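step 4 of 6: structure.
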Amino acid sequence: MDNLSARIISKIDRDRTHGASQLAIMGLEGLKSFAGSWQGDRVKEFCEELQLLIEALRIVRPSMAAIANLVERFQYQFEFLYSGTLDEVRASAIEIAEVLVQDTTDASAQTARTMAGLINDHEVLMTHSLSSLIKSVLGLVVDKSVHVVVTESRPGNEGLLLAEYLSTKAIETIYITDAQVGLWVPKADKIVIGADTILADGAVVNKAGTYLLALAAREHDIPVYVGCESYKWSKVSKDQVALEEMDPDELQMPPLDGVLARNIYFDITPAELITAWVSEQGVEREW
Amino acid sequence: MDNLSARIISKIDRDRTHGASQLAIMGLEGLKSFAGSWQGDRVKEFCEELQLLIEALRIVRPSMAAIANLVERFQYQFEFLYSGTLDEVRASAIEIAEVLVQDTTDASAQTARTMAGLINDHEVLMTHSLSSLIKSVLGLVVDKSVHVVVTESRPGNEGLLLAEYLSTKAIETIYITDAQVGLWVPKADKIVIGADTILADGAVVNKAGTYLLALAAREHDIPVYVGCESYKWSKVSKDQVALEEMDPDELQMPPLDGVLARNIYFDITPAELITAWVSEQGVEREW
C-alpha cells in the first residue's frame, strides 16, 4: 500500500471522536484524494493500488457497516469503468466518490429532518455518545425548547463534545456520568440515538452503554428512536459482527498484577428495545 | 456543636471512598471519641451536646440507613443510663459505642461468610463500586479461583481501589468502564453487590449504576445477590428516600453556558431485580 493510502487508513483507524457516517465520508474522500494524487502512469497499476485501499477501508473499522457499505458501492460502480486512459479512469473514480459523498450527506440530512419531525415542543431528550446525525437533529429543533440529557460516554468522553455543541445552540443540557443513566431515563420523553451499524435483524451496534440506556428506557416505557441512514444497514448477524476493542490505556488504569483493563467500544441493542428506525426512507416501527 | 463533633460530621460528609458500614462505624467511633474527650463538667450539658452529635449523624448521609440505624440504637440504649456522675455517663456512652461497633463488625463478618458460601469454584463474579462487605466476601473465596469483573464506578473510580485489593489477593480481575456493563454481564455467573440502604420493600439503594447492572443481569438470567446486614434495613420507601447528590465538579466538566453537570451518587434497584438478600440472619429469596 502506498504512503497516502496508509495515512488514510491510519487516520480512520485512530479516530475516536467521529461516528460511522463521518468516517465513511472520510473513506470516500480518501479514495478521491488517492485517485487525484496517484503518481504512476499505468491504468492497471492504478486500479490495483486503488483496490488495495478499498480492501483496507472495508475492514479498518469492523463495527461500522457504513464504511464498508459505501466503499462497496464505490467498487461496484467503478468496475464498470475499468477501461480507458489513466486520466479517464482517474476522473471517473473522483466523480464516483464525489457523488457518493453527496448521496451520503443528503441521506443524513433527510434522516435528520425526519427525526426532528418526531420531536415535540418542550420535550426532554436523552442520548448517548456523539452522533453527527443526532447533532444535526438537535440543531434542527432549537426552536422547540427541548432539554437534552447527555452522557459522558467514557472513556473518550465524546458526550462533552455534544454538550459543547448544545451550549453554542443555547439548548438546556444536563451532563451526567454513564452510571447515572437509570436515574435520568424516567425524566425523558424520548431517547434519540445514532448507530454505527444496523444488523440484519434490526439490532443496533452503537457506542458501549447504548444497550443499558435502551434497557432502562423499556423499563419506564420511554420510546427509543434510532437514526440509521440506509448505508448503515448490514446483512451481518449479531453472532458475526466484530465489536471493536480499543487501547485499554484509554481507561488510565495504573498497572496492576492480575488486573486487565478492557475497552470494548460498542455494544448491541436488540431490535425489541427499539421503538422506531428512522432513515432517509422514513420511519419504520418494525424491522 | 463543638469542634470535635463538627470534625466528625465533616469527615463523614466528605468521604467518597467508604461504604455505609464503614461510615456507620466511623459515626460510632465518633460518639465514643466525643464521650472520651469532652471537656465540660456537667452531665446535662454532656448529654445535650452528645444529642446534637447524634442528630447530626442521623442526617449527614441520608442515602445510608446504616448510619442513622446504628446511631439510633446508640441513642435508645444510652437513654436508659441518663443519670449518674459524669464519669459514669461518659463510661456508659463509650461502652455502648464499643459494643455496637463490635456487633456491626460481627454482623458484617457473618454476612460475608454466608455470601462467600454461595460462590462456587471458578465462577465469574461481577460487582459495581466498592463495598467493604464484597471486599471481605472476595477475600474469603481466594481459594475458589474466581474471576471478578470490576467497574470503574465514575466519578470517584472506587472500582480501582477494589481492583488494587484483588490484585494483592492474586484474584484474576477485569476492569471496565461503567458503560461496558451490558457487554460483560452475559459472561458472569453471579452479580454480587453491597448496599447503602435496603428500603421497606426490599429495593436496594447503592452506588449509581447498580440499577443498570441489575437490569442487564435479569435480561441474561444472571442472579443478583445483595449483601445487606440488618443494620442497613430501613422503613423508608422509595418515594421518601433521599438520593444524595455530590459536587458536580467531580465530573470535571469545563464551564459551559446552559449545561449543568449532575452527580447523583445513588440509584434504586427494585426488589424484583434481586435474587437474594444476604445478611447475618441468612439468605432471603423473597423480601
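step 5 of 6: annotate
 - The longest strand of chain A covers residues 147-151.
 - The mean pLDDT of chain A is 96.
step 6 of 6: archive
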